[in-house]
Each structure stands twice: as structure tokens, then as C-alpha cells.
Amino acid sequence: MADQFPVPTSIIAPGARVETATFVAFLEGPAADAEGHVYFSDIRADRIMRLSPDGTLGVFRENAGRTNGNVFDLHGRLISCEGAEFGSGGRRRVVRTDMRSGKVEVLVDRYEGKRLNSPNDATVDSKGRIYFTDPRYGDRSDMETDIEGVYRIDPDGKVTRVLAQPAIGRPNGIAITPDDRTLYVIDAHPVVGGNRRVWAFAIGLDLRLTNPRVVYDFAPGRGGDGMELDREGNLYVCAGVLAPRGAHETDKNPPGVYVITPAGKLLGRIPVPEDLITNCCFGGPDWKTLYVTAGKTLYSIRVNIAGYHAHPHAGRACPQSSD
């Protein structure tokens, strides 16, 4: 059947096609608090937004240091990964905000005397330890270390690098199981031949990471970005793309939230009708609303299994083992 509205070849230049000239929003890092507010980053506009339970949308923080990932800790304080993407002003550090006083505390901005690359995503275990990823995408000219690793911040403030190359290429999304025994890390290396894998690492009694295994490999399509866990231990991985953005990826994986068991079985995909899907979180009064950031839009969908997070309201009914 002929196209009812054909391309006006007499008007556009030969071979021309519509391309993105610029964009005004790039959403990331959703996190829900105990009262049902959802906080999420707009890295492009350098701010953190807040969606209230009644649907009111407002700005929580301007000049947010190019914040990417967010997560709440055991005391309901907001942990934010201030990165270095989409413009100047990235502070390249992990900070903690007291939601009552508004006080912002810097948890780490350097490791062994060198500035962090671009903190990306974080997760909190049941003892209050924070794990975060520190890759660098885009301009790499001001990197002070060639290690793109995973770090742990202990409750006493001690910072330890727990994962680095060659065990991981470019760590991105991160999540920990309720029993603190398994750390999941997404390796998202956007080069030809780069990794598109979700890894699982066993956490020993000494907190060392051992026994790496591939949970799921998205290659050759676009791999995962952020992820969350539900209370049955399933992984909700934001992945896929509408059209390849270079020779490093294909259109094998359409955009959506891929639900994967700890054993690596794909249970299905929650379609998301927009490119650039980045991250997700569980929220709502029963933690059965999944919020998804993608491009310029925050989406939501009801699910049957409640999500897991370590902070008290979300964690009260959590199981103590997962995989």
C-alpha cells in the first residue's frame, strides 16, 4: 500500500533525513521515598525533580552537579551520584542529603588522591553500606584514573574499591540482594566488541567479591543501563534501543524493562514507547508501582510483585534470601 503522505523529495535535500539537533532533558536515577515521592535526575538540565503522590511535579534541587543515580539509605537520606555528563558543572562525587534539614554531605569525591570519574549508580545493603559505580562516558580528557570501578562506602566512611578491570569493563547499573550475598553489576561498554552483560558477584564474609557469573548477555543489541530487584529476587533491567546509535550495537533488543530471574531466565519485557530508556525504581504505598525513566519521560506501570530496597519502609516485608 502506497504511503498516504510520501516524503517530499522535491523539497528536502537528496539523502537528507530528520535528525536530533539537540535535546532539553535526559532523565535518570529514579528513587522513591517512604511517603511515595519519586525523585529523579534530569542530567541535561542539571537538576533533580520530585513527583509527589498527588501528581504534583516540582524541582527538588537545581545545580545538582549533573546527578545521575539516586537511592535512599536506611535512614531515608537521599544518596546521589553526581557525575560528569551532558555539560559542565559535574562534581564527580557521591553525596548524601538529609531530607529533613536539607544538609548535603559529601561522602567521597576522590580515591587514593584521584578524582572520581563520573559516579553513575548506587545501591545500599541491609547494614547501610553503599556500593556505587564509577565509569566515564563521553569526554574522557579530564580523567585522573584509568580505572572504571565499583566502590563500597562503609558506615564509618571508609571507601574501598571492590571491582575493577579486567573483571568489569565499564560498570553502570548496580543492585544488591536483600541477604547481602550477591551484587549485580551491569557492564555497559559502548564500543564495538564491548560488553553488554549483567554480572553477579558473590559477596564473602570479608566483603570480597568472588565467583563472577554472567546472568544475562544482551549482545549484540544495546545492553542494560539501570536495574532494580523485586522481592522475589528478579532483576528489572532497563535496556534496548529503537535504532542503533553506532556500529557497537544493533536493534536486537527493543526498549523496555527486561525481567530476568537470578538464574538468568528471561521472564519477559515490559515495553517502553520511547528510546533512551535509562533506569527504574519501585514505589507507591505497596511498592508495586514501577517507575521508569526514558529520554524526557517518567513512566509508571503497576506490577504484581513488590520491589525491594533497603530503607526501612521498603524493606520491612523483604525476604532474607534471594539467590
Describe, in plain words, how this protein is organized in 3D:
The structure is a single chain. The chain is an all-beta fold. The protein has one domain (27-315): Neuraminidase. Helix content is 1%, strand content 42%. The strands form 7 sheets. Strands 1-2-3-4 form a 4-stranded antiparallel β-sheet, with no helix packed on it. A 4-stranded antiparallel β-sheet has the order 5-6-7-8, with no helix packed on it. The protein has a 4-stranded antiparallel β-sheet with strand order 11-12-13-14, with no helix packed on it. The longest helix is centred in the last third of the chain and has 4 residues, at 312-315. It is globular. The model is unreliable at 315-323 (pLDDT under 50).
Task: Summarize this structure briefly.
This protein has 323 residues and is mainly β.
- Taken in chain order, the helices and strands follow as EEEEEEEEEEEEEEEEEEEEEEEEEH
State the shape. globular
Q: Helix/strand/pairing class, anyone?
A: mainly beta
Helicity, in percent?
under 10%
The name of the CATH superfamily reads: TolB, C-terminal domain
CATH class: Mainly Beta
Largest sheet: 4 strands, antiparallel
End-to-end Cα distance, whole Å, is 52 Å
Count of helical stretches: 1
Total count of domains: 1
> What is the CATH architecture assignment?
6 Propeller
Q: What fraction of the residues are assigned to beta strands by DSSP? A: 35-45%
As residue ranges, the low-confidence spans are 315-323
Q: Kindly report the spatial arrangement of strands forming the biggest sheet.
A: 1-2-3-4
CATH topology-level name: Neuraminidase
